[in-house]
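Sharing a chain and its predicted structure for anyone who wants a worked example. Both blocks are below, sequence first, tokens second.
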Amino acid sequence: MPFEITPINSRLYLIRWQRFPNAVESQQFIRALEDLLNKADRKVSFLSDLRKGYLKELSLINKLSRLASHPNCAHTTAFGSVGSQVYAGIYQKLSTKADKPREGDTWFTLEQALAYLEKLEPGITDGIDLKEVARP
């Protein structure tokens, strides 16, 4: 699989892409994320590492954006390259709702993304192993 979804702590998951996914892998990613949210016993947040890959198909980005409104999805943020910023802009437009305003949730650096999460939910980044999360 070109992606890993791993818990950082009980409230936060890391999504790490190793490369761009093909169509089948993209669908598998959406299903894995949906399963995780459906099985969660509390609201969880996601930190996505988009340095090496991300979804490219608009229909799949739309499906992903709908998962941001799942009752068990607290917050989403990401960090990565210029290309990922374009992707994130599309995702952000699709997932923005009046009751869940977004001021910019994709960043160039891990530190910026973590600061954003911490602003939204104080304490969520406590105890994070920055070296592990930052590894390529």
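Comments welcome. Residues 3-134 form a domain with the Transcription Regulator spoIIAA fold (CATH 3.30.750.24).
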